[in-house]
Amino acid sequence: MDRPDPAAPESELRQLLQHMADESLRDPTAFRARLVPELRAILDRGRAAAQERLLAERDGLACARHLSDLMDEVIRTVHAAVIHHLYPSDNPSTGERLAIVATGGYGRGTLAPGSDVDLLFLLPYKQTAWGESVVESVLYVLWDLKLKVGHATRSVDECLREGRADMTIRTALLETRLLLGDAALYDELVRRFDKEIVTGTAPEFVDAKLKERDARVAKAGASRYRVEPNVKDGKGGLRDLNTLFWIAKYVYRVRDPKDLVRAGLFTPEEFRQFERCEEFLWRVRCHLHFVTGRAEERLAFDLQRQVAERIGYAPRAGLSGVERFMKAYFTAAKDVGDLTAIVCAELEARQAKPRPMLDRFLGRFRRSRSQALDSDEFVIENNRLTIRGDDAFERDPVNLIRLYWFADRHNLPIHPDASRLATRSLKLIGPSLRADPEANRLFLDILTSRNAPEAVLRLMNEAGVLGRFVPDFGRVVAMMQFNMYHHYTVDEHLLRSIGQLADLEAGRLADAHPLSQQVIPALRHRRALYVALFLHDIAKGRPEDHSVAGARIARTLGPRFGLDAVETDTAAWLVENHLVMSTTAQSRDLSDPRTIESFAKVVQTMERLRLLLILTIADIRAVGPGVWTGWKGELLRTLYYETEVLLGDQTPDVARMDRVRQAQERLRADLPEWDADAFAAYAARHYPAYWLKVDHARRVRHARFMHAAEEAGQTVSTAVETDGFRGVTELTVLSPDHPRLLAIITGACAAAGGNIVDAQIFTTADGFALDTIFLSRAFERDDDELRRAERVAGAIERALKGEVRIADLVEGRRQERGRAKPFEVVPDVVIDNTLSTRHTVVEISGLDRPGLLYDLTTVLGKLNLNITSAHISTFGEKVVDVFYVCDLTGGKVTHPSRQGAIRRALHEVIDAGAEPPRTAAHGAAR
After folding, report:
1. Per-residue model confidence as pLDDT tens digits over 791-816
2. Closest by alpha carbon to 160, among 139, 183, 176, 136?
3. Among 815, 867, 771, which Cα is nearest to 856's?
4. Half-sphere exposure of 640 (CA within 13 A, CB side)
């Protein structure tokens, strides 16, 4: 294919002007009717050429500049046509002057396919009707072209007055470019802006831009490692690079980015890094705009695969093409962060910005700072830790680790000059340093610090030291997992999990995790816990199970770090089993003795149970905002207490009978208005599983709820309750038991958009079902949430009474599926008779979609299976639904042909969601 000719649009526009010169178009409407279609066609062809060029040359900055050049020519053409046909001025007066100036990103000479076109119409102090008419006519044509035009019409004095008062306008004026018109007028603006506004105000500007950046980043996502990043406004995105240049331009008065090297701000290599990041981010942004046909800045999941393919990323080294692309993106975002630190340090040295507050860099540090360093290698400069000489790392490579150890010990941020030198000295981190006992002692001290291990480890990671010192960690740096569950890259998740553990240990999460405060003081293998958490996902991206591979890595690294044999074995065990407690708590019946027995056989000791509990809490909390809920905490606590009984050498059956008796006695004490016969009759309605599984507060509510229904003569009744601590809403249903009951309940929830997180299902001795469905909250306020829950409850009651057809409601909800998500989840159905003493366990996993739980429970009902317990877990786009079932005689499903029929029927349901990427209808969870 021939490469598009960049001069083609300019040539076409000249021809258009020449052709229009022969026509008399004095009427503005006729003028636009003639001009706009021609310009629209030229713009479309120019953008198509830019896209072809982007695909062929893979240069995002060149694409942005090409689009800017195209827009320049369009605006010049519009202006020339307006001057010729509508408002000619052969002998203009001093008032009939006009300069059209590009501002903002367009002023830098770059333009994304969907970006706004920012223009300043600069007029003389004494304006005339001619200037206003020309501006208005130019804008009308641009608007008719469907361009998004950000514009201002001002004199030089007005520009300066607005620039003094508004930092956004001042920034726009900092980046201006004359497109056409009166050069003297534009030169006056540039000269006076520099003299009257910029001079002497650098600290004010820098402070404002950094505060603006903090606010913008907080809105777009505080971490640069969010898995759906904002390319323009997110941390490490294009706006951060713009901010760097704005600050440098304002403080150093440079006009071109290349001048940053001459100003001493960047080394030549750092400037090349600046250019690489800028080009890559522009490439991603241009592809995003072309793919979506709009100014889309968020690199969402459903766009990542398309952009990766357009750029040319293919699967390699165990990573898919989209994962390799996102790793490149996050690496660029990290490099932008490094450049930001360099600029801030240089500005601080020149006192163009306030000295750093410690909390800005190491927000978890709380101890008083000690300024006395017991070292000849390190000094404190501008409240930052740095090295005495540029040869400190060469003379003793252990100093590369010692630098961060001192930062942790003395609560000091590290001077970017020291970080820059550390990055340039990474070649010194080889096998000998990795094997050095002192280096490993210092590293283990950092990892297990009671101060701020997450913050210091992140500094090591951003400098590249951590990935070189622990190469297995280096493999997961900037590695993204292409799913909706994990919010961060693997390395960011690991560092955040260490921070969560430090918070738990320090008691900062005591209100949310009261059990952890009882457990942590009893831990004997604290160092093993920190090492295990640091390594628990370190084998992600490998072909084998990451838990098994991670345990093998832990057995190698444990002794290197300085763990003894017992600590190493404990750390490896924790890594290999780091998912067991979470999986068991969320997808197994915790009232089934076999569940607890199986889990206890894995754990074996109280010390391992304690360690695994704390690791699981930290791991889940570090996945991302909103992933941890009080409901998950409740499940983990229940599993912990149940297992504690077995590991405490109590006889399970005796302990259970005692607990049933104690539960009944406690309930009796809280129902003083009931007589003995009434309570005895009520207690006899419930089987032992009820007394073991339901907490006391809920047992009290159930008793009064069932009594009220009986008094009112209701055979079908519902109740709703919010639970703020666990973040769920309880919906309790009392109804005569029948096989399709759960399907009706789940269908009503699906129709109302309720996301079910768990279900407690009990059958009473007199043939009633007492089911409690737990929904994730949709509203913060209890009154709003209760109204939603009551609507769901009302739909359930109407369905149970035959007043509505649930199937119709669910089908209507299915038509409202949201945006397709480009994920692939391999469907699976597992039928197991070993996980429960009395029931067959059916585990179904696959791609989540609206109404899935209703479809599954409906099929199980048609297969004549009684569901005695249901456990629903959603991990982003993946759902894992577990049902404890029995046949109509109350026995397990053991015959192979019967199991085969169940498996086929369930696969028909779950396979319906396994559609190819970009066509799958995923939507919200049930």
Report:
1. 888 888 888 887 777 777 676 666 55
2. 176
3. 867
4. 23
